[in-house]
Amino acid sequence: MCQLLGMNCNTPTDILFSFEGFHRRGGLTDHHADGWGIAFFEGKGVRLFIDDKPSADSPVSALVRQYPIKSQNVIAHIRKATQGVINLANCHPFQREIWGQYWIFAHNGDLKDFHARPGCYYNAVGSTDSEAAFCYIMEALRAKWCTPPDTATLFAEIARLTAELHGHGVFNFMLSNGDWLITHCSTKLHYIVRQAPFPAAHLVDEDVTVDFATVTTPNDRVAVIATVPLTDNEQWTAMQAGEMILFRDGAPLLQHQS
Amino acid sequence: MCQLLGMNCNTPTDILFSFEGFHRRGGLTDHHADGWGIAFFEGKGVRLFIDDKPSADSPVSALVRQYPIKSQNVIAHIRKATQGVINLANCHPFQREIWGQYWIFAHNGDLKDFHARPGCYYNAVGSTDSEAAFCYIMEALRAKWCTPPDTATLFAEIARLTAELHGHGVFNFMLSNGDWLITHCSTKLHYIVRQAPFPAAHLVDEDVTVDFATVTTPNDRVAVIATVPLTDNEQWTAMQAGEMILFRDGAPLLQHQS
Question: Where in this chain does the record put each Glutamine amidotransferase type-2 domain (chains A, B) (predicted)?
Answer without folding.
Answer: 2-250
